[in-house]
Amino acid sequence: MTGVRCMLMRGGTSKGAYFLAADLPSDPAERDDLLLRIMGTPDPRQIDGIGGAHPLTSKVAVVSPSADGAADVDYLFLQLGVEEPTVSDRQNCGNILAGVGPFAVERGLVPAGGDRTSVRIRMVNSGGIATAAFPTPGGTVGYDGDTAVSGVPGTAARIDLDFAGTEGSSCGALLPTGRPRDRIDGIEVTCVDNGMPVVVAAASDFGVTGYETDLSHLRDRIQSLRLAAGKLMGLGDVSASSVPKTTLVAPPRAGGMICTRTFIPLRMHTSIGVLGAVSVATALLLDGAVGHDLADVPPPGAPMGIEHPAGRLDVVVELDGTSVRRSSIVRTARALFDGTVFPRSSR
């Protein structure tokens, strides 16, 4: 059998397969076919592959040395379908991003920089640059620590992710429609992109509280909303795309800034994505944006608690008017195994 070198890692509240670009076919079509066979897609259980039968565990990071002088490594994120044989590069993933720096050190792409190492990462999907800082005691990646992330059992080492501005947004602008508020299908929305295209709407406008654990009955309405929003945001036909995400907001009830329920793109997220949370938090800081009046906004520079079904995620966003100076977030990651993965036959 011919296998492929692979490291399985948990990044934030997601799990994915991490590869060196050099270990995969250079042709995108051949690469995608191989990854589908590695993950076990299409199959609702992904029983014949290493996927976890959920969008949050059917993810891939492709990492390589960067030719961009502003970055150390390039990171291409690929979202693989579970039941459908799809591979999408239309979005970033901030949770999987959390494992890219440690993976780069593990693979020797970046040397450990003492007790703590910083890795500059070019997010190929959008062109943005993120910096990941994490412990490397004794020149090796340290995964143990006392940082807790809602939705992840136990604790692990702290990883600081820092994003500069919105130059890497998929839509090319913080407010892709040029307005803080639009009306789609009779619903007031804010279309925002600070690293992740998101449509923000009030849960109450959908006849729900925003605190539910099951909102599957909203699937058709969410799809109609995001299809229309995708065109307004300059993303074109998004019927086969995982972006934009849709986030319903409600007043906080656990000491945070806002309570959220996010769809990825039609299945309700068990928590919230990193860059999705950054985009939502950014929108809520803007006068006139949907949810601004529902949010308990902290002082400038203070962490903004984004409540979600599994707990809370703290985000820091610094604005200069309607321009983003920087955003940051804390995540954890852990290597789960490193070895050779064997794809199913192409027959």
Automatic annotation (TrEMBL):
What InterPro entries does this protein's entry cite? Answer: OMA_tautomer-like, PrpF-like
- For this UniProt record, give its keywords in alphabetical order, as a comma-separated list: Isomerase
Which Enzyme Commission number(s) are listed?
5.3.2.8
The record's top EC class is isomerase
Q: Which GO terms describe its molecular function?
A: isomerase activity
UniProt superkingdom: Bacteria
List the NCBIfam families. OMA_tautomer
The text of the family note is: Belongs to the PrpF family.
Protein name in the entry: 4-oxalomesaconate tautomerase
* Lineage of source species: Bacteria, Bacillati, Actinomycetota, Actinomycetes, Streptosporangiales
